[in-house]
User: Which sequence fits this backbone?
């Protein structure tokens, strides 16, 4: 057996219970939109746990959405440059459908803007976005979410699907890594 990784101290920002209540409220908001042939497009990897909880909350609201995935990688930071690459595209038919993109964090906005434009270009009837966390302070692109879980402070967060160097996705809550300084 290998050594377990050194553990960081992680302070809870949003507890599992707080997240669960908010996900139910988001599902009620989405259900109120009366979507036609709803297609949920979850952005991998970070949104997989959020999307899994959200679609079950949508089921409790009586919806029968189809679910698909787009795997996007965003490269480059700062105010110039920054490109988004598709590692895996949506397979479902999109034309004429009401699409809801589900992502973990709206940060610079590059990923969401790219996904919205791509799905609109493929003929969606409408494209909405549902993000769990919105870091408004870091926006570089003019893009907004139609449904937002929490307005998040400008801190790097982990857990509930979100990672740092592929760690901590398994945490049932969202937290911030505490530093000693
Ligand atoms: P954007 O294109 O800059 O908006 O990138 C958003 C993506 O960056 C999110 O979907 C996350 O995958 C990732 N990201 C941004 N902030 C964080 C964070 O605090 N923790 C983990 N991932 C993050
Ligand atoms: Mg992401």
Assistant:
């Amino acid at each position: 057996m290998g050594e377990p990784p050194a553990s960081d101290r992680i302070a809870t920002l949003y507890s599992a219970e707080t997240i669960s209540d908010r996900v139910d409220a988001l599902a009620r908001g989405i259900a109120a939109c009366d979507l036609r042939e709803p297609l949920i497009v979850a952005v991998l990897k970070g949104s997989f746990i959020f999307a899994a909880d959200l679609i079950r909350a949508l089921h409790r609201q009586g919806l029968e959405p189809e679910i698909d995935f787009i795997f996007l990688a965003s490269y480059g930071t700062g105010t110039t440059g920054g490109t988004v690459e598709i590692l895996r595209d949506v397979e479902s038919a999109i034309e004429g459908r009401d699409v809801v993109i589900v992502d973990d964090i709206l940060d610079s906005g590059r990923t969401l803007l790219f996904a919205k434009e791509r799905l609109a270009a493929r003929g969606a009837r409408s494209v909405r976005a549902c993000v769990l966390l919105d870091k408004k302070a870091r926006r570089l692109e003019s893009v907004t979410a139609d449904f937002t879980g929490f307005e998040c402070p400008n801190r790097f967060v982990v857990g509930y699907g979100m990672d740092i160097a592929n760690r901590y996705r398994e945490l049932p809550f969202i937290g911030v890594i505490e530093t000693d300084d």
Notes: The longest strand covers residues 66-75.
